[in-house]
Fold this protein.
Amino acid sequence: MSDPKNPYEAPHADPNATVPAPLAAIPMAMPAPVKATVGIIVALALIVGYSAFAQGTLPWGQLGIMAVLLWGVVRQSALAWQYVRVMGTLAVLATGTIMLSLALGNRSPGHPKIHPLVMGTSLLLETLYLIPVLLMGTKPARRYFNVICPACGSVRVKALDFLYRERRCKLCQTTWR
Ligand SMILES: [Zn+2]
């Protein structure tokens, strides 16, 4: 029905057709998995901050990193998305290693028993580190951070530069920003 040569046809609605596709993530309401991630990062900041404060110190470095991550998440930054996943995974591995060594030490004879509260807290932290990693992999989160292929919908996306400004789909090779 739409003949491109028909001079009487109403002009097409998109005046930006010759301009490349949008260069930034489309602003959208924060989906539930991202909201949950924000809540967990805030909870972690409170736990880490409070437990250090109880010992008379404040971990400014850790709290600063969490603040920057939160800022990036609110701004739909793909770099923040990547860092939440990478740092969450590292924290899961580190906490898991500590828990394993505690558990092994607990079993050796003559070793002072680890307080159940220590193991409980470690388990809680482990869970809180792991959940954002899983949440960030969901499709609503990927759409929010614009790290899902706009052409074929694949989640196999790689960053083309360190700051994660340009992305490429590993499946159909589409690149976008
Ligand atoms: Zn694709």
User: Anything to note?
Assistant: The pocket of zinc ion is lined by residues 149, 151-152, 154, 169, 171-172, 174 (CB under 6 Å). Confidence is low (pLDDT under 50) at residues 16-23. Helices lie at 32-54, 60-74, 78-107, 116-136, 139-144. Residues 29 and 39 are 16 Å apart (CA to CA).
